[in-house]
Amino acid sequence: MITPLRFDHIIIAVRDLDAALADYQALGFAVYYGGKHTHKATHNGLISLADGSYLELLAPVDPDEIDGTIALLAAGEGFAGYALLSQDLAADGARLQAAGIPFVGPSDGHRDRYDGARVVWQAINLEGTRSPFLIADVTDHLLRVPADGDKINHANGAVGVSGVTVAVHDLAAAATRYTKILGVAPAQRSQSPEEESVTFTLDSQTITLAQPLVHGTALAAHLATFGEVPYLLQLQTDREDGMGMLDLK
User: Of 36, 32, 70, 71, which Cα lies nearest the Cα of 54?
Assistant: First the structure.
């Protein structure tokens, strides 16, 4: 039996972490400094959500030295990828190998938190793409994703991630690949004059793959600029009227 994957976190590449922390705080999020990645010239800010997922603001420690770790910054700030939480990375790796999905890993990752504690995880990175990668905790999950009240209570009412939409060039090929990665078939298909999409359901969250059908749309522009990375992130709120669209520019 396949142990289901679930959405873990989304990566948002930013040039200046201090400025980004202030910007997201102004949007009503409780943002905090996460720490520095061991052996990498990056550090992050985190937005923890009550459902156990989070948003990661990833930036170079020195804004003047942008390396390949966050190469997406060459195209501008924005979504750089996302992670799925694995309960058994070895089993998921074996499943991916059997399905013919090439990957690298499991590899070790480390981050020294703001309080000095070291967070350790392992990851499987799929070849040729930043989205998605699989992650599994070595140290306690709450060490990586704190659930303290001051970190998960947001002024804008955000409590979790309900879905992510990923821009793709070839929907049929992407849907076949994602079916192998996720271990489930698409639950929904839709098409409009501007785009077509398929949606996978993971627990209470969705992953939608969207291909633009015409030029000149926001989806087409995003795909042309950033490649096959997340295009939209849907957040669940505790407000009856929701939050609406957040302007991240």
Answer: 32
